[in-house]
Amino acid sequence: MNLQPATLQSIDEVITHYPADQKRSATLPLLHLIQEDIGYLPPETCEWVATKLGLQPINVLEVITFYPMFRQKPIGRRHIKVCRTLSCALVGGYKTCEQFEKEFNTHRGDISPDGEVTIDFVECLASCGTAPVVLIDDDLHEKVDCAKAKQLSDQIKAEAKKR
Amino acid sequence: MAAPAQRRIIFQHIDEPGYSNDLACYVRNGGYEVLKKSVTRPPAELIDEVKKSGLRGRGGAGFPCGVKWGLVDRKSGKPIYLIVNADESEPGTFKDRYIMHQDPHQLIEGTMISCFANNVKQAYIYIRGEMPHGARILEKAIAEARAAGFVGKNILGTTYSCDIFVHRGAGAYICGEETGLIESLEGKRANPRIKPPYFPAVLGLYQCPTIVNNVETLCHVKYIVEHGGDAYTKVGTPNNTGTRIFCVSGHVQRPGYYEFEAGKITLGQLLYEVCGGPLPGRTFKAVIPGGSSAKILRFGERFKGKRKVGAEMVDYDWGVEDVPMDFDSLGMIGTMGGSGGVIVMDDTVNMVEALANINAFYSHESCGQCTPCREGSLWMKKITTRMVHGQARNEDAALLKSVADQIPGRTICAFGEACSWPTQSFIAKFGDEFKQYPETKKTAKPAGAHELV
Amino acid sequence: MIAPPKPDLVTVNIDGKEIAVPKGTNVIEAARLVNVDVPHYCYHPKLTIVGNCRMCLIEMGLPAVDPATKAPIIDPATGKQKINWIPRPQIGCGTNVSPGLHVKTTSPMVKEAREGVMEFLLINHPLDCPICDQAGECKLQEQSTGYGRGYSRFIEQKNVKPKRTQLGPRVTLDDERCILCSRCIRFSKEVAKDDVLGFVDRGSYSTLTCFPGKQLANNYSLNTVDICPVGALTSTDFRFKMRVWFLKQTNSIDPESSVGANTVVWSREGQIYRVTPRRNDEVNDTWMADSGRELFKAVNAPDRLATTASIDTLVAQAAALFKANSTPGAIAVVGSGRSSVEEQFLTKQLAAALNATASTHLVSRVGQGDKLLISADRNPNVRGALVTGLISALPSQKLTALAAAIDAGKIKVVVSVGEDLAAVGLTAAQLAKVSFVYLGTHVNPTSAAAQVVLPTLSVFEKNGTFINQQFRLQKFAKAVPGPSGATDDLIVLAKLVTAASARLSSAPLAAIPSDLGSLWKLLAAEVPVLGPITYANLPETGLLLDATPFVALPFVEGETLHFKPVAPAVAVTV
Question: Any CB–CB contact under 8 A between B358 and chain A?
Fold first, then answer.
């Protein structure tokens, strides 16, 4: 595992949040930290985390595959998560998702051909009063109708061009 | 009758111009004064205030908070843990998000008061993975509070020590279930535990006594300790004390969050007056009053029976609009107040499609432990999805009901109910629409209707 | 009225039948005691309780008491204490008995619950019983006849999951058949301490898997096959070999160590197809090692000893050897810790008749114990040799005394009961100096060098008893007939004893019996500790003998599943 020193430091710090004989509790925090560092959880994650926390690798794999936020494959530079659940769907969540798919010429679950985004249709993001909502990386965007989806997409594309 | 004014206790500062989520702002507004007073009082007295207040949990089940605290095994000699359930996931609910983002110190103060009252050694805030900013804000706020002596070692110069750590989830609705949450916090798949024997109050986190309280509930605790349990009972209605935050979403003019005294506002007042009624040219068709697992109500249906008012039993004859928004009234008419998430659907919505959307959610979120929920939730999803995107059959309504009936009451946790109540209630209330669906499908959708699945 | 319970017993009522059961018993086990079957999948008496399959739902009620006074509330209609029935079904596995607990297992609520669970379990199941090895011993199949609908209401696409996965060298997984009961996962973690199995993904898509790059290869892996209630985990070896309903079951004992795991040998028409564990809560619970399951393969091995000569001819040849070496002390006997108690008893008689009591030996076999069901003593019956008096001290791994006696020219003939002397320290030169009478099942250097070879039977082909490390006398029975040209060890030994007695001028012994019934009368007479026992009345789970005379001996075993050494085990080098 090729982790940045800061990540390793955070990992050691977060383990201290739990009783010394309950290091397993740090499984989710460690997975978050690794994913934030590398972008996804490479195959060696299970063994690495298991060794770090005194577990068996299967214990880690069971956890990774239970929680949808953990991914075992790389994604695009930006992660667009469109809420699919009822309150958002009632005011056009499906159209919002399709708009993003159209903008980036891709399909939900895939990396766009330019490698810029991965679009996922996810369950309730707990911001139903400002539906439809979209989480782009860590930032929540509210009332994202098709027009706003287009605007957000343009922004992402513009930033990509600058790079 | 005009709707009462909002009574903002918990959301007092939410969206207040100039109010920021840092410690200085919180202290400027009287923050941590309640904690300062609390640590000078006997802990048992604080628990008594909460018991007297009649506070019911705001996470969904409405279980009395004082009773929950009373169940904690204080003789085991093991440390007591408190977990803040900030895994706000019930579709239609979005109140805790604002507390954590805009007023995190309110939660921290409520948490520390509750910890002190219960002699808690360590608290964790289990926050949804999808709220990364929320987690950061909380972590920063806790650090501030720790530096100021409100959290951590020897708080406020006393001998009492208790720290708070933030623990992020990773996208699992089932972590809202308290024993699923505990499993997740222990670093495992969030499979809820069997009860008996694993009641959190006795065998919770690390097999130690554990209190799991919702974010909003702990904020109420702060208010209760500040004003006294008796004073709190004057807010709201008997057995439904305090305020409730209603999160309104879907087809209304002004969706959003509104805090009212519990039971003092009807569903009709909330939707028509507070939220501005249906969208132009539309009419309300259905409403789910307490998060997406609550049983749906159909506008036009009537509820009759007897209810207790004071010491007397009086007849009631309510339309959907007349139902007071409190745990007991909503329970009486066969649904629930749940987490306060009110989802409104107007006449553009086809109920088969709406149910298909809900079923997709619950089948995605079933942990997969118990056979009825694991298989039943996916089966219901497959049926409703097929009805929308494939062939719909006349007999599907009866089959859906039969499948749903085989789930509740037969699973480890309440997810069995959560995933079957929508189907049961949709079929009960809109059975005609399900039977007609094979024909409806052939006709054009109403203008403005959105794809739901 | 419910009778006042004995201390630590709790009286419960199951389907109207009252029974007193120990505290801590769950409803499934309590019901078993009154012959009421509560169907279940995830529950296993030797694993932790998870309560996830929901098949064991029962209706449950508790005696009503006045909340204020705690006085019983009497139902005027019956005059008995009222029962408050809980309106939702409860799991039998996770519900422990409490005083006055009432259980219904046949009520409409229970029936509906079981039918519901059954239907759910089957919707994503491939229903491929005709090609499934589990058919005939499949809980899903059995319970679908009781609670299944008989037709399917499921017209959707079934979930697709991996098929024919090799989880390890001996276990094959079909994930589509898996009902996610997690028994195998719990066994691997809790009993085998080899945490390699787990579920990946979530909900109905949850899939049993072994961690990629690892294997379910521990020596207890096949227990997962035994406890899999459906056909998800099957034995790679047994797969597609035979329908289980054609197989005869014979109770036996795993001979690979002094643990003496109880087993069942499954055979048809003289051929063994598999060996599985048999529950004995005092010895092996419901488990056995994989290694013990493969031992039957030696039965039909090409190096199996057999003869075309008649047994009497061979015994006469041995008698001639004995006669030719009638000097007292010229014959040595090497008995075996793998022989049965009865065989060891006859071996002792043989040694006496040959004047060889002073030069009777036993070979010890020592390996690493696995702390579970294989002990350090790899002989199944060293304690039998002690109890019968064949030996009085613990055996050693090398027969140095015998070697010295051969070197000294004292020993001329060695009778070996199944022991290869080349393997226990005798040199080729020493072997060449003596004549051998060899009783055994398979070819080895000693049998090759022997003047007389008497082919005998394996543990699967005969009746007998072993005494395990706990001094528990346990019996095994003949599952299949021996090959032609091999004779039951008891018959061979009895004939040798008779022949040896005739050699001596003293009065020949009355004919030594070779049948177990008569032999046990002799055993009982000569070995007081076996006094009240007969082969026939020995319980299938064995009988603990008084070990007092032997406690001071430095046995080699360390701790195993149900055994703790009396004194710290002496360190042994393997």
Answer: yes
Q: Are residues B341 and B355 in the same domain?
A: no
Residue C34 structure tokens: 């009154």
> C124: nearest CA in chain B?
B375
The answer to whether A90 contacts B450, with C-beta atoms less than 8 Å apart, is: yes
Q: What is the DSSP string of C106-122?
A: SSHHHHHHHHHHHHHHH
Whether B249 contacts B240, CB under 8 Å: no
Give the C-alpha separation, B223 to B226, whole Å.
5
Could you report the per-residue pLDDT of B260-283, keeping only the tens digit for each?
A: 999 999 999 999 999 999 999 999
Same domain, C411 and C345: yes
Between positions 113 and 142 of A, the ones with CB within 8 A of B are 122-131, 135, 138-140
With tokens 């739901």, the residue in question is: B452
pLDDT tens digit string along B197-209? 999 999 999 999 9
Facing A124 at nearest CB: one of B89, B132, B256: B89
My answer on whether omega of the bond before B197 falls inside 30° of 0, hence cis, is yes
Tell me the ipTM for this assembly.
0.97
Q: Is residue B4 part of a domain?
A: no
Name subunits touching C (3+ CB pairs < 8 A).
Answer: A, B
Q: Can you give the CATH number for the domain in which B250 is found?
A: 3.10.20.600
C191 and C267 both lie in a single domain: yes
Please give the Cα distance from B244 to B262 (Å, whole number): 5
The rounded distance, in Å, linking the Cα atoms of B188 and C185 is: 14
Contacts of C116 (CB under 8 A, 6+ apart): B372, B405, B406, B407, B410
Tokens of B444: 């054009």
Across the interface, of A43, A56, A61, the residue whose CB is closest to C200 is A61
* Whether A46 and A86 share a structural domain: no
- pLDDT at position C3 is 54
Sequence letter at residue B452:
L
Please list every residue in chain A whose beta carbon sits closer than 8 Å to the beta carbon of residue C200. 61-62, 65
DSSP letter string over C373-436? S--SB--S-HHHHHHTTS-SS--BSS-HHHHHHHHTT---EEEEES--GGGGT--HHHHHHSEE
C248-276 mean pLDDT = 98
d(CA B396, CA B376): 14
Q: Which residue among B250, B292, B450 sits closest to A95, beta carbon to beta carbon?
A: B450
Q: Distance (Å, rounded) from C-alpha C537 to C-alpha B346? A: 79
Q: Which chain C residue shows the shortest CA-CA distance from A71?
A: C201
Distance to chain A for C167, nearest Cα, Å: 14
Q: Which of B346, B371, B397 is the last residue of a domain?
A: B346
For residue A49, give its domain range. 5-66
**Whether the predicted pLDDT of C571 surpasses 80:** no
Q: Name the B residues in 135-194 with CB < 8 Å from any C CB.
A: 172, 189, 191, 194
Nearest chain C CA: its distance from B262 CA (Å) = 30
Burial class (CB in 10 A: 0-12, 13-18, 19+), C72: middle
